[in-house]
Every structure is written in C-alpha cells, then in structure tokens.
Amino acid sequence: MCLNSAMTSIKVSFSQTSFQARAEQLAATLGLELSLISSAVDNPNGYYLNLGPQGLSLVPCASKNHGPITCQFDGGANSHRRKFGGGNGQAIAKATGVSGKFKPGILDLTAGMGGDSFILASLGCEVQMLERNAIVFSLLQDGIARAAGSEDSSLQEIIARMALLSGDARTYLQCSMADDYVDVIYMDPMFPERKKSAKVKKEMQAFHQIVGADEDAAELLPLALERAKYRLVIKRSANAGYLADMQPSYSLEGKSTRFDIFALRKLPA
Ligand SMILES: C[S@@+](CC[C@H](N)C(=O)[O-])C[C@H]1O[C@@H](n2cnc3c(N)ncnc32)[C@H](O)[C@@H]1O
Fold it and tell me: 128 CA distance to ligand 1 centroid (A)?
C-alpha cells in the first residue's frame, strides 16, 4: 500500500483512552506517529487521523477548512442515495448493466471511500474493491466494519456483498489468471484538479492532497479490457476527455459526471 509524502506527516490520534490501543495499532500499521490530539493539530494546512466514537476520521488541523471525513454507510449521503437514489434507474446502474434480472459481479479498481461500490452492492451486486492508498483504505475498512456491526439487517446484507482488498489494481490485474474474468470492471480515478474552482468541494480538495491525481490511470485501461467479460465502465468528470484518448462504445452523460462504457459482450437477458 502506498503513503505519499503529504501523508507521512499525518499523525494518528484518539479522542478517548478506550480508543488508544486501536490507534496504536493503526499508527504501527501505517508507519505513522501516534500522538495526543493537542500535538496532532500542529500542521495548519494538514490533517490528522482520529479514532473516536464516530469511527476513524481524517480531520483537518484547521477546523475552519471543513469537517472530519469519515466513511459512513449507515447514515449521511450513502444512506440517502441507497434509499432515494433511484434504484436501477440510476446512471451507474444503467452503465454497469444492473437490472431486475441481471446483477453483474463487479470489480471496482478504484474503491476510494466506497460510495459507488456501496450503491452497486445495494442494487444486489457482489462487489470486489481495490484501494491502494493506505489512509483511504483504512477509512473505508473502518466504515465497512462499523456498518457490518449495525443492527440494520438490510445494511448488513449489502455490506456482506462488499469485499475490500488493499493494493494496486494494476498489479492485481497483471497477476490474475488468464481465464479469470469479471462480469463488469468499474473505475473512477481521481479527476484532474480544477484549480481555483469554487465547485471543487473542500472534501475533494482534501482527497486531492492525500491521494494525488492518479496520473497512471490510463495504464489500467488495457488490463481491464482483457479481464472484463461484459463491460468496462469508466467514471469521468463531465468535461474530461476520454481516458487514454480511447473512445468508448458509448457514454452516459450527467450534469457533473459521465460514464464511458466499453461494451464487450451482450448482457445476459
Ligand atoms: C476518485 S476516488 C474513487 C471514489 C469512489 N468511486 C467512491 O465512490 O468513493 C479514486 C480512488 O482510487 C484509488 N486508486 C487509483 N488508482 C488505483 C489503483 N491503480 N489501484 C488501487 N486504487 C487506486 C485512489 O487511491 C483513490 O482512493
């Protein structure tokens, strides 16, 4: 798993002593310094990781920047989208070929905070997720663990369909067997940063700082095309060019995002 230079200055902290042991373990796993909150916040433009009753959060040291970033499936935007997002009528469902009759197995090469995978799992798909950024992986792993322990049995069923692996998708695809196909491969690499744009949410700016620009995303494309049985779906910013300038079979355009679809075989009826 990778830690870039912006991440090595991040400290791990905890808000109650009951979280200290887990924080120590996380700091050791990530190779980061464990500290009390009072000294974790000493980098005005930076972040710290905090373990507390709300789970694991990435917190800006200067609280005016934005609130803590936590992976949450039992509330917030993910929960709202699961309940009111439009089911199989959503663009992501159409793009991946999800229907009442067909629930493709999905390999999400760029899991991030798991929002897209969660929607696909909530529509009935088994989803395998890959994430290479150590901090993002830890936030997602924590969100999944908390949701798995929820008392909401339908949420538990969705989470049981989500499997998370740490590591680089390129290596994963390169090491998979020649006849190891996945129904649908999905990827959503970081968009190039729109500098000085008020439209880029503060949380997304934080993500850019932690993750970077996924400059190598184009390298995944030929590997994914070899492994996808029915489709490769690439999520892009609405105004971005095609990944690696490769024209897809067709696109589904939304207000701010677009799904480029490489249709490789007819979907099962
Ligand atoms: C824009 S975010 C994905 C957001 C996600 N779709 C969601 O709904 O939360 C892109 C993520 O992909 C990860 N990523 C990019 N390239 C990767 C690769 N080759 N292997 C594994 N993870 C990768 C980045 O670390 C980042 O966390």
Answer: 13
